[in-house]
Amino acid sequence: MTYLIGVDCGGTHIVGQTWTTAPEHLVQSVTGGPGNVVLDYSAAVTNLTTVLDQLTAAIPASQLGLILIGIAGIETAGRADQVQQTITQRYHANTQVISDAKLALLNGLAGADGALVIAGTGSVVYGRQAGKFLRVGGWGYVLGDEGSAYDISKRALKQVLTQTDNGQTSQLTAPLLAQLKVTDIAAAVQKFYAQDRQTNAQLAQLIAKLAEQQNSEAITVLVTSAQALAQQVVTLYQRFAESWPQRVALSGSVLQHNRLVRDTLTTTVHQSIPTIAFNDITTNNAHAVIYWHRWTQEEINS
């Protein structure tokens, strides 16, 4: 019997799962604390090993075939090798450390070629073709993250500022001031800069609600943000070789809960690539360990 362990280390929590391969069967699932190595490396590794300790406790070491770990922020932190070495030494097992986005790509496409679009607090577009990974966007809330909740919030406040500079009052001014609990534009800007990324991103929920109420400026913000993300999908596909893969998986709170953003994204992409089929990710991304294992076995046998 061969056991595989997949771990999805997200910013809010870690999910680890143990799977068998023949037949494919979920043996155990364990949840732990935050796993973002950028925010707190020591705490993230401690939470990770706590989960792995539970998953490996009942597995004979000789039967543990692979530990696949997807970690939020690992590419930014540049500490994948460090984490991999730590886990390998602790559990004496073949260990691979990748980004949580790549983990989601493998899971969302069931190991097949294609693309993944994530739009939550941040955003990124990933692709995989013939064993190679490609990335577009995901450069953080200051330089990118188009289509994300933070991007929507930022675009909304910029709309207010643009109207203010023109001597006009935006339809978004009063709702945003009320949400930020301030009374003037200068105070709104000051508070936006002072708040953390997560708190600012929550303003997107207000914009979504206003759009549902047919607020034209809120609708424009959502559509423009979604179109920017859709362009990144098109850019990714332009980097694919011929015989483009046709599947795109969608993930993240914005794409799951905001129908206007989702519909704008898919419609805009279809204008350039009408044959693409979109699908949602319905299982935890720790399941990707199954597909990584299949992929590596195919490479060995080819």
Structure characterization notes:
It is a single chain. The strands form 2 sheets. This protein has a 5-stranded mixed β-sheet with strand order 3-2-1-4-5, with helices on both faces. Helix content is 50%, strand content 21%. The chain folds into 2 domains: 131 residues, 2-Layer Sandwich (Nucleotidyltransferase, domain 5); 141 residues, Nucleotidyltransferase, domain 5, CATH 3.30.420.40. The protein is of the alpha/beta class and 302 residues long. The protein is built from 14 helices and 10 strands. It starts with a strand and ends with a helix.
Q: CATH H-level name of the largest domain... which superfamily? A: ATPase, nucleotide binding domain
Quick one: how many beta strands? 10
| CATH classification class of the largest domain | Alpha Beta
Q: Do you know the CATH topology of the largest domain? A: Nucleotidyltransferase, domain 5
How many individual helices?
14
Overall geometry comes to globular
Distance between the termini: 23 Å
Assembly classification: single chain
- The rounded Rg comes to 21 Å
What percent of the residues sit in helical stretches (DSSP H or I)?
40-55%
- Main sheet strand line-up: 3-2-1-4-5
Question: How is this fold's topology laid out?
Answer:
Blueprint: E1 3-9, E2 14-21, E3 24-32, H1 41-56, E4 64-71, H2 74-77, H3 80-91, E5 95-99, H4 100-108, E6 114-119, E7 123-129, E8 132-136, H5 140-143, H6 149-165, H7 173-180, H8 185-194, H9 197-201, H10 203-212, H11 216-239, E9 247-251, H12 253-257, H13 259-272, E10 277-280, H14 288-301
Parallel strand pairs: 1-4, 4-5, 6-9, 9-10
Antiparallel strand pairs: 1-2, 2-3, 6-7, 7-8
InterPro entries: ATPase_BadF, ATPase_NBD, Euk-type_GlcNAc_Kinase
Domain ATPase BadF/BadG/BcrA/BcrD type: 5-272
Enzyme class: transferase
